[in-house]
Every structure is written in C-alpha cells, then in structure tokens.
What does this fold into?
Amino acid sequence: MAFYQKYQLKNGKIKWLVMYRDSLGKQHKKKGFRTKKEAQLYAANIKVERARGREVTHKLTYQEVYEQFFIVPYTASHEESTVVKVKQDFQNYILPSFGDKLIAKITTADCQKAVLEWSKHRKNVAKLGQYAAMIFREALAQRLTYDNPMAAGLIKYPRTQPNHRPKGFTKSEFQIFVKALQNEYQEQLPRAFTFLLASGLYRVSQAGNFSA
It folds into this structure.
C-alpha cells in the first residue's frame, strides 16, 4: 500500500511524495510530484509492473543509462554531424541537470525545472526536451524506471520570442526594385545612393523612407 504526503518547498510551492514497499519489503520514497494525482499514477504504474513480474530493481543514474544503453546505438545509426550536435546538447545542458540523479527518482517537476533553466541559454529548448526524453524511454525499455517524466504533454515549454527583424529582398526582387527606382527617380537620387543600388549592396531594411 502506498502512502502520499504533501510538503512545502522553501519558495512556498507545494509538492507531493509517495512512499511504498517493493516485493522484498524494502521501503522507497519518491518526491517532487506536482499533484497527488501524479504521485498516485506513479504508484499505480509500480503496482502494474510488479504484477507483470517487471519490478525495477536496478539503480542506475541518468548518465549511466545514457552511456550504457543510448549513445552507442544512437551513434551507430545516425550521421556523424547529427551525433556531434546531440552529444554537445547532452554535455552542455542535459547531463549537468540529470546526470548524477537516479533515473527512477527523477520527476516531472525536476524536468520542468531543468527546462526553464535551459531556456535561459537556449532558444529551441523543446529539442533538448526531446533528447532528454529519449533516455527515459530507454530506461523504460530496460525496466530501469516506472515512468517517463518527460512524456508528451507533461512539460510546459517557454514560448520562443519571434524575430521581428525586417527581411531583405531576394536577389531577383532586389533587381526589380532597383530597376523601378532608377526608372522613376533617376534625377532625384544622389549619386552615392544610385551607385549602391546599381551595385546590389543596398538592403531594403536599411533604406528608410524617401520621396521625389
């Protein structure tokens, strides 16, 4: 039978923990659930897996799962350039957040906290979330954890600020623009400005407003 308890963090936020015993009678505790329902779902998964004879008994860290079950087959099945980028993301962001934690103890709250931290330094933080979730899926396949705390819909990703910088002309659009200006305003345009137009160096984002 599982026992649930809520507790308060130093910042005032309320979290839930669950305590349960394995088939050998050893007590376990997992903290960091955002709601009691999340803790109950975790305990329910444990009960189902135990009934199937798939109780988690190994205690590996996130980094150990990454090294032992993920990165070697991933490297063998992907292009080198892709592997280099993925390894960099793990080394720079994901492993510093989760590497030394027991993978079966990492909660959705832990993952949400990591995502918010990554977003301070990286724009496409959802891509990091996808990479991080692959390790949890591998842990599930290897029966090293009971759930994937980064499963679809559990993590809220910060919105990326849109880029409002004006877009320059394409080469063909710019040539049409230059020709139209030269035909219409040839006498009014200063020589230096005409030279820039003719040489193709002027961008519409730099032009500003002008009139005849």
User: Anything to note?
Assistant: The first helix runs from residue 36 to 51. Residues 204-212 have pLDDT under 50 and may be disordered. The chain has three domains: 1-55, 57-162, 171-207.
